[in-house]
Design a protein that fits this description.
- This protein is 28% helix and 40% strand.
- 6% of the residues are buried.
Length: 72
């Protein structure tokens, strides 16, 4: 389930508007069903694409390490 260029652009625009951050960018990964999510060039999450019964959905997966939270 590869991402189309137009699909990536629409999803990126959606995330930028939803989170109020134009620094959000999506980048291809070696795995076709997902994209890297970056904020101002820093990797923060992965978006997975799922197609089931003719419907497409996207899953945003962000791992947060306890050492990152403790450092704030």
């Amino acid at each position: 389930m590869a991402f189309e260029k137009s699909e990536i652009a629409k999803l990126q625009t959606y995330l930028q508007k939803k989170f109020g951050n134009p620094g959000i960018a999506l980048r291809d990964r070696k795995v076709e069903d997902s994209l890297e999510v970056l904020i101002n060039g820093e990797f923060i999450a992965v978006v997975y694409k799922d197609e089931d019964e003719g419907e497409t959905s996207y899953d945003l997966n962000m791992s947060i390490l306890d050492i990152d939270v403790d450092g704030e």
